[in-house]
Write a structure and sequence with these properties.
Elements (H helix, E strand, L loop, with lengths): L2 H11 L5 H42 L3 E5 L8 H8 L5 E16 L2 E10 L4 H4 L2 H4 E4 L8 E3 H7 L13 E3 L2 E5 H6 L7 E6 L11 E11 L4 H4 L2 E5 H7 L8 E6 L5 H12 L3 E5 H4 L1 H39 L1 H9 L4 H37 L20 H27 L3 H5 L3
Parallel strand pairs: 3-10, 7-9
Antiparallel strand pairs: 1-11, 1-12, 2-3, 2-8, 2-11, 4-9, 5-6, 7-10, 8-9
Helix pairs in contact: 1-14, 2-12, 2-14, 2-15, 12-14, 12-15, 14-15
């Protein structure tokens, strides 16, 4: 052990003439502890929310989407699927059609995003089957319906172009919970989807198709539950007049972090005019803002540690004034200025280490308790979670510890320099 660390430790443990200095030292360590614990908890909660949002968005969507440039329909999508399925890390492939349209039920007309999916393979690329809260995943054919059933649910006009036969089997449609609530639709109700695909001129009519609600899904993401409706791939091809084409192909990976690597393999294998987008590309703005928000909280909550650092400055200055005689004797014995500086810097650093260590432990314990026992619950009708999400990452603990130690070390520089500049003759002249 160096003499600087030995003396710094003795100064911290010694009984001082002025007990107020000891009180400020304890307050400084407590401030560092509270600041570190607050940072750890906030960052872990931010990680939890980011993880939940990411899992739900990616669960409602795919890891990678393959389309053509300018969103031209894919005619040879079966051959594309055959080339994509053998790729490494790919666990599911499914074609899809996506476009904007309108949903009509009685007098309610709402704008929606229509997504046509393959009922047999959609579960390989998304969590749609698991998010259905009412009804079931049945899209190709709904239930047998006659004109009386339709009139009781929708009361369409007799000359409605969507009604082509008094008795038929309607294709199924799955609605998001929010849009189903807004138009007061339930499982078994019939409605009409309207697509602008048939509007080729001023006096042309849009494409219409009647469906029956076979399910309602809820992802917990308002933007999805309030806008998306799912129909079968064949119904979407008829509605958007695509023939045998699709909008693109969706892929799911065994590990979403490999998305960039798989995208490069896809573009290398398929070439032009195919274009691959990863989950991060499709939601770049959202995840970038969440990352910025996380580090913004880190900067703001570091102010708590800065307040504790100012307390360390004041306690160290008073320590220097109290130990003037000791400093003078050490310098008279040949201690260099750097050695004197290191004594007081180490003393302040020890306070920071103690506060940081206790803060990390308290933060970890509280986060673990929330993960295990879920003390802090959230209202389910406001949030899509029933408890405050927490996800601890070792890197966050390291960053918080480095920030706390860095601020503590900076706080000791000025008092240590004052002690190093002290003249030994003036320090011991009147002692």
């Amino acid at each position: 052990m160096s003499y600087e660390l030995f003396i710094a430790e003795r100064y911290l443990r010694s009984k001082r003439h002025t007990r107020f200095i000891s009180l400020i030292t304890y307050i400084s360590a407590g401030g560092v502890m509270i600041g570190v614990a607050a940072l750890v908890i906030v960052l872990s909660v931010m990680n939890g929310f980011e993880s939940e949002v990411r899992d739900r968005i990616i669960g409602a969507d795919a890891h990678i989407k393959v389309t053509s440039f300018h969103e031209e329909p894919l005619l040879d999508y079966p051959a594309v699927i055959d080339q994509l399925r053998p790729l490494d890390h790919v666990t599911g492939v499914s074609p899809y059609i996506q476009g904007k349209g309108m949903l009509r039920r009685s007098r309610s007309v709402e704008g929606v995003i229509i997504k046509g999916v393959d009922e047999e393979t959609v579960g390989q690329v998304s969590d749609l089957p698991q998010t259905i809260v009412a009804g079931e995943l049945r899209l190709k054919t709904g239930v047998g319906a006659n004109s009386a059933f339709l009139l009781n649910n929708d009361k369409p006009r007799r000359d409605d172009p969507a009604v082509t036969a008094p008795v038929r089997r309607l294709p199924g449609i799955i609605l998001g919970r929010q849009i189903a609530f807004r138009i007061a639709a339930a499982v078994g109700d019939s409605l009409i989807l309207i697509s602008p695909a048939g509007m080729t001129g001023l006096f042309s009519t849009p494409s219409l198709k009647r469906f029956i609600v076979t399910g309602v899904f809820e992802t917990g993401i308002f933007e999805y539950d309030d806008a998306f409706v799912y129909i079968s791939l064949g119904s979407a091809q008829e509605l958007f007049e695509l023939g045998e084409a699709v909008t693109g192909v969706e892929l799911k990976l065994e590990n979403l972090d490999r998305a960039d690597r798989v995208r490069a393999s896809i573009e290398e294998r398929l070439g032009y005019p195919y274009y691959a987008r990863t989950w991060h590309d499709m939601h770049r703005t959202l995840f970038r803002w969440m990352k910025i928000e996380k580090w913004l909280y880190l900067i703001l909550l570091s102010l708590i540690i800065m307040v504790a650092a100012f307390n360390i400055v004041s306690s160290q200055i008073m320590m220097v004034l109290e130990k003037r005689r000791d400093i003078g004797i050490l310098k008279a014995m040949g201690a260099p200025r750097d050695g004197i500086m290191r004594i007081f810097m180490l003393e302040g650093l020890i306070v920071g280490v103690i506060g940081t260590a206790f803060g990390l432990v308290i933060g970890w314990v509280l986060c673990w308790a929330q993960q295990t026992y879920r003390f802090f619950s959230l209202p389910g009708d406001v949030y899509f979670l029933d408890a405050l999400p927490v996800r601890m990452q070792p890197l966050d603990f390291v960053i918080v510890a480095l920030v706390a130690m860095g601020l503590t070390l900076l706080a000791t520089v000025y008092p240590a320099r004052r002690a190093a500049k002290l003249d030994p003759v003036d320090a011991i002249r009147y002692e």
